[in-house]
Amino acid sequence: MTIIADSPNTASAANVPPTTRADLFEWVHGVANLTKPARIEWVDGSLAEKHRLIDEMVEAGTLITLNSELRPNSYLARSHQDDVARVESRTFICSESEKDAGPTNNWADPDEMRSTLSGLFTESMRGRTMYVIPFLMGPVGSPVTRVGVEITDSPYVVVSMGVMTRIGRTALDVIEEGAPWVRALHSVGAPLDRGEQDVEWPCNPTKYICHFPETREIWSFGSAYGGNALLGKKAFALRIASAMARDEGWLAEHMMLVRITSPEGQVAHIAAAFPSACGKTNFAMMRPTLPGWQVETLGDDIVWMWVDENGLLRAINPEAGFFGVAPGTSDSTNPVAMQTLWGNTVFTNVALTDDGDVWWEGMTKEKPAHLVDWTGQDWTPDSGVPAAHPNSRFTVAIDQCPTAAAEWADPRGVVVDAIVFGGRRSHTMPLVTEARSWAHGVYLGATMASERTAAAEGTLGELRRDPFAMAPFTGYNVGDHWDHWLSIGERLRVSGRFPRIFHVNWFRRGEGGRFLWPGFGDNVRVVKWMMDRLAGTVSGIDSPVGLLPKLGDLELHGLDLAADDAAEILSVDSAEIERDARDAQSLLTLVGETTPDVLWRENSDTIDRCREDS
Fold it and tell me: Which residues belong to the active site?
């Protein structure tokens, strides 16, 4: 049951601790002494607890209840207008050595950062409830499942963590059995004085998201939004977990995971890495346009992989929910996601319709005549601003997804047959290419680039290198991350069962800026070619960036695609590829001495192939 202590500064907080782990209780008690909450609540993960917290947030104005006939058990939250996305500039890796953070992370001295954070957290929870959330990343019994405890003063975080992870008694039992656990401390940084009226979305203009890889700790202050506050997500599942995986010999990656079944019964499991808002969720929930093909969802954002006792690469999704980008999601682009959102969903920063439902740009062809926008203001199509924030989100359980594979939570995971990298590129990269080797595949992943989207800070459309789609998420030196991938390849060499590695680009444009490839459900046509490659039934055409499909081997029947467009999306301009490879050298140089020599060789080989091809 939920255990509440009204005074963290007296023995009452210790009268009925729900844990026998002295290290856990002492940490909770120490945080309470620092932050001075009005009371402590140990979260049990029960449905009654969830309903109580939701009712409290509705009463406080943090959540708006949606029309129960249109969207049962669903709610809308509106964040502060300065708290809408990841804050990469305020995200730090506080490793003992600056070199271990690498040049692509913001590093801070751990002792100095602890001092800064201790000052910020002093009495930061005054007047609020301090929630203690034990949570599991991964299903019970998996060899890579890990456990954490998040302390937060945000009931929105508690409810969201209950969707995204396995919280409460299930996780606490794993800790009780002696498992090591990650400390995750979060505060919105908005203490309340006695009698002070709270705001609907408390946060603080000062923000820090700090990771201490050696001690497996996360400290997050000031933001209540997304991965800044749901610390099981990017902070644990990627930044801390990637460092754990390096030390323990597995991989924690920013990937989606699906099972594909052909009409003939061929089955393949594919893990794919795309930067945020570049198609991961659409791929994970693909509704194939080719008859007889089936895509089953195993995960849409994070994959943990390990080499099993037979030398095979296996994978699980450590999460239990989707935290997806709403704008652009519709019955035509992602019907599975729309079906998943039928109810039991928390929406953040979308628009509210006059009949009490939600709306966002791209959801329907016709814009509603009137809405209340994500800032709470009246909106019409003439307002000149988006009704929903470009990074507005939905939070919903995976088991509500109609395409969820029955085994999505199997602790044994699935064997990975193919790995796919891809970014949003308007030119240069072809629709699909296959790596020539594991090392070449690691090079493609290390140097992949994408045009920036609304999910992160920065100028929209700006091209940035995003190695493995992990640029904001790798918890240690990126060069060591590349080397770790290469070492996984050496371990796979024992069985000789390497997943094939591909690179895709759904976003290539032609004259006038139009997309050449229809994307969405038609992406199964590219997947079919990948599976044909796995089966050895088709060959590839060598190019400077890898093996390309022969035009006749890509299933285009029934697709409204001009012959010139089909040829264009599969073409490679050697001069462009050489310029791109030379541009990638700036990243390899930035990473410096930790860049594996083999990646420099792959870069040089790409340039040599371009010259031979020109």
Answer: 278
